[in-house]
Amino acid sequence: MRSLIGLTPLLGLALTLFGVKSAAAQYVPFGEAGIDYNYTHTNAPPGGCGCFSMNGGDAWIDYNLPRSFAIVAQVSSQHASNIGGSGADLTLTSNLVGSRYSLHKSGQFVPFAQVLLGAAHASGSFAPGNAGYPGSANAFAMTAGGGLDMRLSRRFGVRAFQVDYYFTRFANGVNDRQNNLRISTGLIFRFGKS
């Protein structure tokens, strides 16, 4: 009995800490914003792979809706230079909007899936242009994928990873489609309370 009385303060402290952690876990932000590093593996030339890598980043903001949904807006840009040893370069910039579905939005680990649609702009000596000359062009763009966010505090988090199928429709003289893979990681800033 005496040992149980000695444990009472420890049990009280444990229950208090558990209660605080549970209350903090219930916090769902009004919205979030983030900045990410992107690695893009692209197959821009038609036929075969013709693959090359691009590096860049993105910035995004979302507004949380009920039932784990959010509206997302994202601006991203990736760049590659000396593609295939040719000295050609390419910058790909996209503006996308869409929706995200997150599981357990109030938890520490938040898996999510999203689909974003919009437009992409290609520029540089490797970009498609008019009459087959390099220049710049605009095209439809789409990303579909998902990832895992980790909550560090009520206001900050980390995007552990995100993997997207990144589809664009630039003219290439064959099928006018590019099937790319984009991998991202970054920081999340959470604000407000819903």
Helix segment count?
1
Q: Tally the beta strands.
A: 8
Low-pLDDT windows of residues: 1-24
Physical arrangement of strands within the biggest beta sheet: 1-2-3-4-5-6-7-8
Distance between the termini: 46 Å
Gross morphology: elongated
Largest sheet: 8 strands, antiparallel, barrel
Sequence of secondary-structure elements: HEEEEEEEE
Taking all residues together, what is the mean pLDDT? 83
Radius of gyration: 22 Å
- The multimeric state of the shown protein is single chain
Share of residues in strands: over 45%
Structural class: mainly beta
Describe the structure.
The protein has 194 residues and is mainly beta. 12% of the residues lie in helices and 57% in strands. It has 1 helix and 8 strands. An 8-stranded antiparallel β-barrel has the order 1-2-3-4-5-6-7-8. Strand 4 and strand 5 form a beta hairpin. The chain is elongated and about 50 Å long. The chain starts with a helix and ends with a strand. The N terminus is likely disordered.
Which tags fit this structure?
1 helix; disordered N terminus; 8-stranded antiparallel beta barrel; about 190 residues; elongated; mainly beta
